[in-house]
Amino acid sequence: MYLSQLYLKNFRNYNQEHLKFNKNINLIIGSNAQGKTNVLESIYFLGTASSHRTNIDSELVNWKEDGLYLKGELIKNNQEIQLEISLMGRKKEIKVNSNSLQRINDLMGYLNIVIFSPEDLNLVKGSPSLRRKFINIEISQISSYYRHLLGKYGQILKHRNNLLKDIRDKKSPKEMLEVWNQQLIDLGSKIIKKRLESLNKLGILARLMHRKITDGLESLELKYDTELEIDSNSLEEEIKSSFKLKLKEKEDNEIYRGVTTIGPHRDDISLIVNNIDIRKFGSQGQQRTTALALKLAELEFMKGETGEYPILLLDDVFSELDINRRSQLLETIRDKIQTFITSTDLADLDQLKGNHQIFKIKNGSVFEV
Ligand code: ATP
Ligand code: MG
């Protein structure tokens, strides 16, 4: 699968641009603040109807305009698919082959994307929320059911937290918790089960990638990190009963604090290298290697789940990697994964041989080279 064309109108600092992409490597070159990341963001937006760097859609619209429009052409199994997305005020409209989609969710699965940006270098050492986001986005792209579960769970969590505060402030009776508990446990356990399954597969792939990058010297292990007493093969029912038990145990404490402290919204992924938890004790190099291994594993994981490689967006990270890690990356993508690489300097990219197209970006205008 690859994105053959993209038309942008009033997206961020662009007015109108029509880009024709290479099916292998596309280099997006320009000085700071010219619009390189904006191009990647527009591709991400076309594929997911959301931005990877803001939750506020209106920020994507050119300051001087009222709305934006993107159109992309995708080649999948030798067939063309046209994706369109427009944003006018709060109204978002998405079309696939000129047909409007009823639900934004239905966009998922057409253009799958893996993005690797400087923040992802924090994937290892950063807060648990980054690792949750990583696993959530990954599963969401291949399962609209998972997205639905996450959305519902978020709503229930909010209600339950409000109720906990009301109980603490004696505005509601404790008995009211039961209904919310049941829904929290039911949805939460389904989410955790999905995560365990995905992590089992991803773990194997990440371990392989990691071993290659480190020349077999280090061994990576991914583990689901939760307060629940479960393991990587636990069944949904087992997760539910552990969830229920823990909630009971924590009930008084949660009422006192007014927040839900148990559940997938608090879980994490432990990253163990040679038996050491590198979230806490990893060196810079180990963090980088692991972040890269996770991203490369994500590409293979998606291929396994959907039958096709996603496209890869590399925002400013290529030049941050050393020769060894670069070669591993290039070997993984070579001739099979369409990749978009941003950089301020072409000289950083001389390792890239083969089929590529260069786009120079200056102040929201693109020049093909
Ligand atoms: P860097 O190398 O520093 O990462 P970049 O080329 O990736 O730079 P972008 O993040 O793509 O830069 O942003 C380019 C410019 O777009 C910035 O100067 C920013 O102020 C501008 N910009 C952001 N949002 C909008 C918007 N809604 N309308 C117009 N311009 C915008
Ligand atoms: Mg940038």
TrEMBL record:
Binding site residues for ATP: G30, S31, N32, A33, Q34, G35, K36, T37
GO MF, one annotated term: single-stranded DNA binding
Protein keywords: ATP-binding, Cytoplasm, DNA damage, DNA repair, DNA replication, DNA-binding, Nucleotide-binding, SOS response
Domain RecF/RecN/SMC N-terminal: 2-363
Gene3D superfamilies named among the record's database cross-references: P-loop containing nucleotide triphosphate hydrolases, RecF/RecN/SMC, N-terminal domain
Places the protein is found: Cytoplasm
GO annotation, biological process: DNA replication; DNA synthesis involved in DNA repair; double-strand break repair; SOS response
GO terms under cellular component: cytoplasm
Record family assignment: Belongs to the RecF family.
Alphabetical list of HAMAP family matching this protein: RecF (MF_00365)
Functional description taken from the UniProt entry: The RecF protein is involved in DNA metabolism; it is required for DNA replication and normal SOS inducibility. RecF binds preferentially to single-stranded, linear DNA. It also seems to bind ATP.
NCBIfam families: recf (TIGR00611)
Name recorded for this polypeptide: DNA replication and repair protein RecF
